[in-house]
Design goal:
This protein is an alpha+beta fold and 183 residues long. The chain has one domain: tt1808, chain A (Alpha-Beta Complex), CATH 3.90.1570.10. It is 21% helix and 30% strand. A six-stranded mixed beta sheet has the order 3-6-7-8-9-10, with helices on both faces. Strands 1-2 form a two-stranded antiparallel sheet. It has a two-stranded antiparallel sheet with strand order 4-5. A hairpin with a 5-residue loop joins β9 and β10. 27% of the residues are buried. This is Putative restriction endonuclease domain-containing protein. It comes from Desulfitobacterium hafniense (strain Y51). It holds the Pfam family Uma2.
C-alpha cells in the first residue's frame, strides 16, 4: 500500500481508511506539537506529527508475525537509529498523542490503547476536544497500565517520562473555537 495516496492504518488485520482531520483537530495537534517541539529542541528525542507510518507488532518478535501500521497524530521518537535505509521509522515511540475525532474515538480509546500498551509505548495521551480533557496513560516496561489520569479544566498534564514536558489545558483548549449552540 506504500504506492497509494490514501492514508490508512492496519490494526489487528483490519484496514482503516483515514479521513482528513477537521479544523479544530489540526489546531489542537499544532498546539501540542509546538509545546513538544520547544521541549525536545536540542534533546536526544524528537517529536513528529502525522502522517508518519509507525509499524508496531505487539508482543510478537517481528513485524511480520503481528503487522500493525498506525499514523498517530503526534509521536515522540527516542530511537532514531530505527530509521531504516529507506528513511522509514521502524521503532517504538516513547510517547503517542491521539486527538479524538468522532469517527476514530472508539478505535483511539480501545483498539489503539491496547496496541500501544502491548507494543512497548511508554506513554499515551488521548485528547478529547468535546470534553476538553486529556486522558493520560503511563505504561510499565512490562507493558501494563502503570497509571491513568484524566486532566480537565484548569489542570496541567505532565509527562512522567519527560520531566518538564507539560501542557496547561487552558493553553491548549483556549485555541479551540467555541462550539456554536444549536437551539
Amino acid at each position: 500500500m506504500e504506492s497509494s495516496d490514501q492514508r490508512y492504518e492496519l490494526i489487528d488485520g483490519e484496514v482503516y481508511l483515514l479521513a482528513s482531520p477537521a479544523f479544530d483537530h489540526q489546531v489542537a495537534v499544532n498546539e501540542i506539537a509546538w509545546h513538544f517541539y520547544n521541549y525536545f529542541k536540542g534533546k536526544p528525542c524528537r517529536s513528529l506529527t502525522a502522517p508518519l507510518d509507525v509499524r508496531l507488532f505487539g508482543y510478537a518478535t517481528k513485524f511480520e508475525e503481528d503487522p500493525n501500521v498506525v499514523q498517530p497524530d503526534i509521536v515522540v521518537v527516542c530511537d532514531e537509529e530505527k530509521v531504516n535505509a529507506d528513511n522509514r521509522y521502524e521503532g517504538i515511540p516513547s510517547l503517542v498523542v491521539e486527538v479524538l475525532s468522532p469517527s476514530t474515538k472508539g478505535k483511539d480509546m480501545v483498539t489503539k490503547l491496547n496496541l500501544y500498551m502491548k507494543s512497548g509505548v511508554r506513554e499515551y495521551w488521548i485528547v478529547d476536544l468535546a470534553e476538553q480533557s486529556i486522558t493520560h496513560y503511563a505504561f510499565s516496561p512490562e507493558r501494563d497500565i502503570e497509571g491513568l489520569t484524566i486532566f480537565r479544566e484548569d489542570e496541567t498534564v505532565r509527562s512522567p517520562l519527560f520531566p518538564g514536558l507539560e501542557i496547561h489545558l487552558p493553553d491548549l483548549f483556549g485555541e479551540i473555537r467555541p462550539k456554536s449552540r444549536q437551539d
